[in-house]
Amino acid sequence: MSATRRHILARTGTALAGIAFSGALTELFAGTAAASAHTGSTGYGPLVPDPDGLLDLPRGFRYRVLSREGAPLRSGEGAVPGRYDGMGAFAGRHGRVHLVRNHENGARVALGVPAVPGLTYDPAAKGGCTALTLDRTGGVLDERVALAGTAVNCAGGPTPWNTWLTCEETEDRAGTNGYAEDHGFVFEVDPADPRRSGAVPLTALGRFPHEAVAVDPRTGVVYETEDAFDRPFGLFYRFLPNRPLGGPGSLSAGGALEAMRVPDVPDLSAVREPGTSFDGVEWVPVPDGRARHTPIRFQDFGPRGVTHAQKLEGCYWGGRSVYFVSSYARASQGSAADHHGQVWRYDPYRGRLTLVVVFGPDTDPRLPGEAPDNICLAPGGGLMVCEDGGGAQHVYGLTRRGEVYAMARNARALASDGSGGATEWGEFAGVTFSPDGRTMYLNCYAPGTTFAVTGPWR
Q: Which Pfam families match (predicted)?
């Protein structure tokens, strides 16, 4: 028994009840990411420096730039907004692909999402979504506003009925930053016809600093992560809709919002050993999902409380489980322990939560770096994870055998900022795949750039 596991058992005051280890490596990303990357050889080979200084990829892969911030929108609605973040890809008619892309803009940015009648929630807010339509060869046919007047649209997630749920990573009230409306909601965007969904907040999914969502395609339950910046840290939620799997607009019919409680584990950062599982996960009703007077994570959940975690970010459905990310934890900031990133899996059919991978510090170029963020299912199995830490930024693949490989790296190129100076490429975000699995779409946060990556995918 490891010291870490002994510590967990001692903290919980239990024996083995409620805590199980699994050695089925085909089901777990067992072992630390750093150890796997250091000792194993997997993926598509080493990254090849890009002569154009944009995106390093393995040999045989290539990229196309689909969009850059500041260029004119093809719809004529203004300039392409900045701060590219979460993104989803959807099948269209005649082999077309629709991309819906978030813009994580606050109230004071130079390149906000242009206000469009019928698609604007709060004219004072500069965030929202843009949508691209690609032809069957990957060429851009259209680029337009899909949602405007929202704030700090960070990540989100697709629905089983092929719409995009975009999340506001803020809880600013009306009157803050000049906003005319409350913020901190989820909005639904129809990638083929944004006007069908409109700028209507899905208030029953809660008002808090949302990061990402994932929907169980069997039950319609929506899972949500909260990226809170202060203590108590964020919660992991589930939303039980009144009209499960009801199609576009059905989430506006309301439902029940609940927060996760792992018995005797108030802070997920205390769990250190990959493969550690907790059975008997509980879900506690949220007292006031609209957070009319008190932010949800500060509300009274009873004497047993709920489970918190610092920097809950990416969230994705794969197989029969939902995966979610804790980007990092710092004891100096109030967490129970330090870590450089965790990926968790929750199996709702067993009520089991498992720590599947732990990231290591970015101190060795051969090892995965810190701060995993956006996450998606890879077409060949496993996950793709965007790094959001210091230094060079990567997209890493995680296989079902626990192996980690670098899939992409920013080339740390310097791009003109338009004033004779230069800006450095920022984090990756919005990793997603085309419906046929042949193209990986990827955003660079700043300067905003959307890439399409093709090659010998397995």
A: PhoX
